[in-house]
Amino acid sequence: MKMRKQLLIWLKLAFVIPSVLLSSCQTQTTENTPGTLQLRANGEDFVREGFVTKDGWKVTFDQLYANLVEVTAYQTDPPYNAETGGKPEAKEKVILAQTKTVDLAEGDETAEAILVSEVSAPPGRYNALSWKMLKATVGPAQGYSLLIDGTATKDGQTIPFTLKVDQELEFTCGDFVGDERKGILQGGDTAELEATFHFDHLFGDGNVALDEEINQEALGFAPLAAIAEAGKVEADMATLKSKLSADDYQKLMAILPSLGHVGEGHCYESLVSQN
After folding, report:
1. Backbone angles phi, psi at 118, to 5 degrees
2. Domain parsing of the chain, residue ranges
3. What's the predicted TM-score (pTM) here?
4. Residue 51 CA to chain centroid, in angstroms?
């Protein structure tokens, strides 16, 4: 009887121990398995739907090209602080895109943020993101870091406009801030990161009071309407510098580096020196 009990115990152990070891191995394998990290670019509903500027112009966009370069995701420790700037202290970094021109106006109000790329990446928490906006060397935005093509209407007046920005910019951002955290990648799974662009910083928001900070610092559309020729605005940075007032041009130059975000999370931003 005693021997039978011992035999039963040994038989149970023979089944239990391998299954525990197998489960442990599977867990370790999953933890170390690369996942897929997706990069999305989001101009938000302002760009996809159009909006009213701080000075009452209804603006819609046909194309809004941004040329993204050296987009890099980081696992940082300590977490990157965009207020102090500097380079992320990364224990892991992944290049998400070397160069990609995206049309932020693509799609309607129901569209998802644009999928720019997806790459294999080690698991972990990607809590910082950086990218440059440099002049495109090919494609529809060739020669420009940002190309904005749209139409503005007010009081029966319609002004097509094209703004050609060759100023180069760089953004280094911390954690995505929004309804959900992004960048937490489990082994064998998929996670996403987002480069977000706030064009209400440029034009303001007619749905909030003029004394709100967003409108105090925005250019609006009226200064652009004032330099229209033959019923349209077509301007590169040299034209804007020569035709806008000195104050409005300086305001524009201050706004450009503020366009980049990660959701509502801020970035350390700078103008890239150009010869």
Report:
1. -145, 135
2. 1-32, 34-271
3. 0.86
4. 20
